[in-house]
Write a structure and sequence with these properties.
By secondary structure, this protein is α/β, with parallel strands linked by helices. The chain contains 14 helices and 10 strands. Strand 3 and strand 4 form a beta hairpin.
Length: 486
């Protein structure tokens, strides 16, 4: 065998190192790990002295995630439950459509049979006017009501700000981390990784229904969540979210159920410009004759909202029960990766972060209204705030876990129930690295600042200028180092 020297490169999609002969320089090939197209370009190898002491290397990460995880099959009973709930949820919009059709037919029936009011001309001109009002009032009111009942079927949801998408070239270690976890769980590698300022993470179809039959997945990570976790806890988060995607049929049935559930929530509680215009017109009517039409329309719209609300609660109860079971299924994937102790540690940390964020956002809301200033890096702000809180804060946060109960409409089991389930499984786990999760990013601070500004301007729609943003250090020092600015 020849002693030919090989060149080394890194896949920008999954972060894996690839060796290739020198004649391959500049060629476009498929990565043997993630199958994405890359251009072969040699990178210099770093000596141990050149590496940062707190850096997570590709070899270290690969070694920490080596191994296999047994394939976890979903029980037939669970899949049958998914199918039944999906069919039930799909029937609810049809039931509402049947109700709308019934109201439309009732309006048509009244319009045809109420013509009998004009069979005679008794009562003089005032009698004819009264009959016309009695005829046209319910008829026009019914037509307006039918339009507003059909509107939820046609109205699109309000556009929401899109999360910021990461560049694989800038964060290769994070992409390698997620690619390894996807391989372990036998899930398609997410084609896009996006960041937002939520204390949450999610995985799903990137383009919604357009990706329903494909494998186009997107993973959303909340930077305030990542900033407060170690790598083992973040592995549990990512494994949990990818666990929702490791069963093709279950994932799609779950998406169907969740989409219908969210549609009902939107059409029942969300108002648009059409609703505002109708209310404005109805409140401006002074003529008693027009008030009859407005009253009929308002009653029909109110009735349609009540029917939608009933269907919402009916479907929501069933979907929420199933959602809690789906969370246990996803937890099992997280436990296989990070172990029972890793998931328990994550759930306790999430409670601390949740209370910390609530405390911080209340103070920042007050500070914005008072001084029109905000920190330019929310994850760093939360970290600095936590350092200033008394040690008892963490114990008090964890104690709140014991008092939670999961009602009929809870989408998640309580953390205490999830911890109990994890302890019963008693799995050691595969991934034990517990370095700060932010080390997986090429430049965490830069990403955090960009996402923070995006959150202020796009999600909260605040008129924040660059001069209104202060660094975390300045933000606290300007307020005497107090726990929260006042």
């Amino acid at each position: 065998m020849s002693d030919q020297a090989f060149c080394l490169t890194t896949c920008l999609n999954c972060g894996q190192r690839i060796e290739f002969p020198p004649e391959g320089l500049g060629m476009s090939v498929a990565c043997p790990h993630c199958e994405q197209t890359i251009t072969l370009a040699e990178i210099p190898a770093l000596s141990p002295r050149e590496r940062k002491p707190d850096e997570i290397t590709a070899g270290e990460l690969k070694a920490a995630l080596e191994g296999t995880i047994p394939r976890r099959r979903i029980s037939l009973f669970y899949q049958l439950g998914l199918l039944l709930v999906a069919v039930f949820m799909a029937l609810l919009p049809l039931a509402y459509l049947a109700f709308v059709a019934g109201v439309a037919y009732a309006t048509y029936w009244y319009g045809v049979h109420a013509l009998a009011l004009f069979s005679g001309f008794t009562g003089g001109i005032y009698g004819i006017i009264l009959k016309a009002i009695c005829y046209l009032g319910p008829l026009l009111g019914g037509c307006i009501a039918v339009f507003f009942m059909f509107k939820p079927m046609l109205a699109r949801p309000r556009k929401r700000a899109q999360p910021m998408e990461l560049n694989p070239a800038q964060h290769p270690r994070l992409y390698q981390f997620i690619a390894h976890l996807s391989d372990l769980l036998r899930v398609p590698i997410p084609r896009h990784i996006c960041l937002d300022c939520e204390l949450n993470a999610s995985a799903g179809f990137r383009r919604g229904w357009l990706s329903f039959l494909g494998r186009d997945l997107v993973l959303n990570l909340g930077l305030p969540l990542v900033a407060g976790l170690n790598t083992r806890q973040l592995a549990a988060v990512v494994a949990h979210e990818l666990g929702h995607c490791n069963q093709s049929v279950a994932m799609r049935l779950g998406y169907l159920i969740d989409s219908i559930d969210r549609w009902f929530v939107r059409v029942v509680y969300e108002r648009d410009s059409w609703d505002d215009s109708f209310e404005e017109w109805a409140n401006s009517v002074d003529d008693w004759r027009l008030s009859l039409i407005v009253g009929c329309a308002r009653f029909a719209v109110w009735l349609s909202r009540k029917v939608l609300s009933f269907l919402l609660h009916l479907g929501h109860a069933g979907s929420c029960f199933l959602s809690r079971q789906m969370e246990f299924q996803a937890d099992a994937c997280a436990i296989q990766v990070a172990g029972s102790a890793g998931l328990e540690s994550l759930l306790l940390r999430l409670r601390e972060q949740s209370l910390l964020q609530s405390l911080a956002y209340d103070g920042l809301n007050h500070f914005w209204k008072k001084r029109r200033q905000l920190p330019d890096n929310l994850p760093d702000f939360l970290e600095q705030l936590e350092k200033q809180l008394p040690a008892a804060f963490h114990e008090q946060a964890r104690m709140t876990l014991l008092n939670e109960t999961a009602g009929w409409f809870a989408t998640h089991p309580t953390p205490a129930q999830r911890i109990q389930k994890a302890r019963q499984m008693g799995v050691e786990g595969l991934f034990m690295m517990e370095k700060p999760a932010r080390l997986l990013f090429g430049d965490f601070s830069e990403a955090a600042r960009a996402v923070t500004v995006h959150y202020y301007r796009r999600d909260l729609r605040l008129p924040v200028t660059d001069r209104m943003l202060r660094t975390t250090t300045d933000f606290f020092s300007d307020n005497g180092g107090r726990t929260l600015p006042t």
